[in-house]
From TrEMBL:
Signal peptide from the UniProt entry: none
Keyword Zinc included in the entry's annotation: no
Key words of the record: Coiled coil, DNA-binding
Coiled-coil stretches noted in the UniProt entry, renumbered to this chain: 41-68
Designated name of the protein: YbaB/EbfC family DNA-binding protein
Length: 131
């Protein structure tokens, strides 16, 4: 008469109700892998949520910076392109080349802020996938 395979718990489950999900034979064959599937689904759901959150944050990454003179403010969108420009009415005394330099420097600072934000978002997403 053939004896049924001896079952061994994986040791990863704390509760007895979960132990039956991950019992294995001594040869390592899964008797019931329901618990393992639950873990895979939980991990995949967590990663999908992380991806969705990152995409949401990336599409809303914006920055608005005002030049130290207070004469120029620039807003950039998620790709670093200028989406808004505000110029004070007090610029009458400012040379056009100086104004252009203010706009350019302010836009560059705003674009760098968005790039830094995007980098943090992507680093967080990468960490979620490598944990």
């Amino acid at each position: 008469m053939k004896r049924p395979p001896q079952r061994v718990g994986c040791g990863n489950c704390e509760r007895a109700t979960h132990r039956r999900h991950c019992e294995r034979t001594k040869d390592g064959d899964a008797v019931n892998s329901g618990h393992q599937m639950d873990l895979v689904v939980e991990r995949a759901t967590g990663l999908a949520n992380s991806l969705e959150d990152a995409l949401h944050d990336l599409t809303r990454a914006r920055a608005r910076v005002t030049h130290e003179s207070g004469l120029v403010s620039v807003e950039v969108h998620e790709n670093g392109g200028m989406s808004g420009l505000w110029i004070s009415e007090s610029i009458a005394h400012v040379d056009s080349r100086e104004l252009a330099a203010m706009i350019t420097a302010t836009a560059a600072r705003a674009a760098q802020m968005v790039a830094d934000r995007r980098e943090r978002i992507l680093a967080s997403l990468q960490a979620a996938f490598t944990d």
